[in-house]
Amino acid sequence: MKATNLILALTLILTSVAWSQEILIPTSSAVKDKAIFAHGTKNIAGNGFFPVSYSEANLKLPTKDTTQNWVMRKLFKEHLVQKSNQDFFFAVDPLLNMSIGQEQLQNTSDYLFQNTRGVQAFGHLKNKLSFYTAFYENQARFLKYQTDYFKDRGEFYPNNPPGLNVQNAVIPGGGRTKPFKVNGFDYASSVSYVRFTPIDKLAIQFGNAPRFYGWGYRSMLLSDNSYNYTNLTIDWEIIKGLTYTFMRGKQLNLTRKVFTDMVEAPYERKGIGVHYLSYSPVPSLVIGLFESTIYLRDNATSSQRVNPYFYQPVIGVNTMVNGTESVNMKNLFGLNFAWQFHPQHMLYGQVVSDDVSNKEYGIQLGYRTGNTFNVKNLNFQLEANVATSNLYAANNERMNYTHFNLPLAHTLGNGFTELLVRANYLFKGVFIDTKIVYYEADQPIDDKSRLFESKQNFSIDNETQVLNANIELGYEFNPATQLRAFINMNYRTSVINFGSDVDYGAVSIGIRTALTNQYFDF
Q: With contact defined as beta carbons under 8 Å apart, do 290 and 354 qualify?
């Protein structure tokens, strides 16, 4: 909350001067599907990360239609509060995610529910300054396999005798929780940023907004799966077609320190640094080099100054000088690419490693088509992802590629092979969205403790096979806020070590503003 208040204060100060930058699009996959093919040409949207600005995505902010009355405009076209002119835009909206459902196959009497209320405010001035802020308050009850995973990734407290005791839970994208009623969770989250563009080729952004690297549904480099963290990001177009990104942020392992003078023991801190160099020789092709570094700050009993390499801005230096892991630094590097060979078709992929000598790697290969067969808003996606058993792990577990005890990249963490298929269609507000995820993993999703173990303690667990299928039908009332009423049907079957099946089937109905992603499809 302190970070959110700071961002809001900076926003009020900076918006009093005539500087502005256009707003970034929402992070949800539904908006990304539209953005990638909105140009109607072979030009790729962005340099390899999302969200991008509305102008980069060739999407438009809503304008007032004075031919319609106020109620019709606000319900179907505009933001609730919307003020704009040629150089200025400002909007405020309520946010919600209300649903109720029932698990059909596990003979349980507990209802599933999501009760999310929030508010967002955003705007821009004269193509120099933009800002965004949102807050969510949540109560929810999930399927048992989801609940087990969230609890397994909870806060770690020191035990006596020595050891760690797991308490509460952590929700991907939602943060840490406290108990709510029977098997429910209560949690809150916020996101804010201020983005300043002093010149056309340079953008400086401060806040805790997530960033997703890649054109896929998943990212093997860095995604919005975990939880928001405070960061400073600089995007610089060096010359036409060559862009460089520098990001530094503060992250946490949700492990309480042993000795403290504070009323509540603080969590162990760590830093993250990202360098990304992208090159687009032609508008239809983007190739990006990615480097990410985790910097150790705290252990159980003491703290240390951040490594001086935290401040150096050049891609590749950390890895070349220090290798993939040193005493207080863990490096990961990769390749990100996309080729839009037709206005309606794209190939994309990623390659990543944190330890070449031990053959630790991750690979993504995907295909997208949008406005398929010249049918507007008909999208299809096929994607394969692979990660070896120790990718993202470190010899010192405090430097694993995680934040808030959740993976920073792919939601499954380490040791999996995944194939997913997505298809969706929107026509005059009516939509259908389908998704099938199949994966084989080294261990069950409800026991992901090895994700945080040291590489030196590596052990093979039971192999798990999972099929997770989801179909959602509904109506999109307002594209400005992605306000959607829906009925959702989910089926999941899993086999652990080729044993008996465990099946879940859930049906829920609800209404939500679908502006962010929820990665519960594991």
A: no
Q: Which two tokens stand for residue 162?
A: 């020595």
Burial class (CB in 10 A: 0-12, 13-18, 19+), 275: buried
Give the dihedral of Cα atoms 20, 23, 24, 28; nearest 10 deg.
Answer: 160
Asked whether the beta carbons of 233 and 246 are under 8 A apart, the reply is: yes
Q: Where are the domains of the chain?
A: 29-513
Q: From 160, 315, 135, select the one nearest 243 (Cα to Cα).
A: 315
Q: Phi-psi region for residue 241, left (φ > 0), alpha (ψ -120 to 50) or beta?
A: left
Architecture of domain 29-513: Beta Barrel (2.40)
Strand 212-213, strand 231-239: pairing: unpaired
Residue 503 corresponds to which tokens in the numbers above? 């099946």
Q: Are 475 and 76 in contact (CB under 8 A)?
A: no
112 is written with which tokens? Answer: 């599933």
356-378 pLDDT tens trace: 888 999 999 999 999 999 999 99
Distance CA 467, CA 521 (A): 10
**Residue ranges with strand state E in 85-183:** 88-103, 111-125, 129-141, 155-158, 164-167, 170-171, 175-176, 178-180
Q: Give the tens place of pLDDT for each residue, 471-502.
A: 999 999 999 999 999 999 999 998 887 666 88
Q: Is 215 exposed, middle or buried (0-12, 13-18, 19+ CB in 10 A)?
A: buried
HEC per residue, 416-464: EEEEEEEEEEEECCEEEEEEEEEEEECCCCCCCHHHHCCHHHCCCCCCE
Tokens of 188: 């809150």
CA distance 14 to 18: 8
